[in-house]
Write a structure and sequence with these properties.
single chain, about 100 residues, alpha+beta, seven-stranded antiparallel sheet, 2 helices, globular
Length: about 100
Amino acid sequence: MKQTRHTGALVYYDGVQVLSGQDEAGGRYISVPADSLQDGARYVVFEVSLERMKRLHTGAPDLKALLVDESKGGSYLAGTANGFCDQLALQSQSVTVI
């Protein structure tokens, strides 16, 4: 099972809204909150190439376009009870979420 660790906040508005992460093999991920749980949070996670992650910081493509494109390759769900301290264990999803 793939696991990612938090590497930064891409969008912060009254708390982290979109986070970036990386797995042990160097794969890059973007995580978007799916819902808040009483004992933590759950995220929808998309794998993103390093090239596209770099381009995101220049504004091309914008975040929405990137997530729509990346969702075509599949997505993951991940939950955490301890916020950003935990690694996110990714569970592959068989349906497109966006």
